[in-house]
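sry for the spam today, last one i promise. struct tokens for design, 125 residues
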């Protein structure tokens, strides 16, 4: 696995850690819930449990990619590459679901999916 693919994968994972922080820790702050298209604190309160769950989902994907990159640097290279591809593939798939559900989230979808796509492309090619 090329060093550049690893860099893209790690940056994608760090972005997903940021999503975790926003969704699971800071979600009820107006500056944060407005980024998710919510219009009121009441809406944020209703969505808080879902956001908490989604945030942990993003954290778990990030951890999988971090573990995969770490494994690439051991004798478990194949397992590491597999973990990175799975984590990045899930990130990319989620980005595609996001934009297919609402075109208004195109920018967010690109932010979520571009780096995992680059990592996958560098591994496959």
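last one done:
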């Amino acid at each position: 696995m090329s060093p550049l693919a690893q860099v893209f994968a790690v940056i994608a994972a760090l972005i997903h850690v940021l999503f975790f922080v926003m969704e699971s820790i800071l979600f009820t702050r107006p500056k944060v819930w407005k980024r998710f298209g919510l219009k009121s604190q009441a809406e944020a309160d209703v969505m808080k449990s879902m956001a908490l769950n989604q945030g942990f989902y993003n954290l778990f994907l990030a951890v999988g990619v971090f573990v995969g990159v770490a494994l690439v640097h051991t004798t478990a290279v194949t397992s590491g590459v597999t973990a990175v591809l799975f984590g990045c593939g899930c990130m990319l798939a989620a980005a595609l679901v996001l934009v297919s559900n609402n075109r208004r989230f195109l920018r967010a979808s690109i932010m979520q999916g571009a780096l995992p796509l680059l990592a996958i492309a560098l591994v496959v090619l």
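The two ends are 10 Å apart (CA to CA). ok im logging off now
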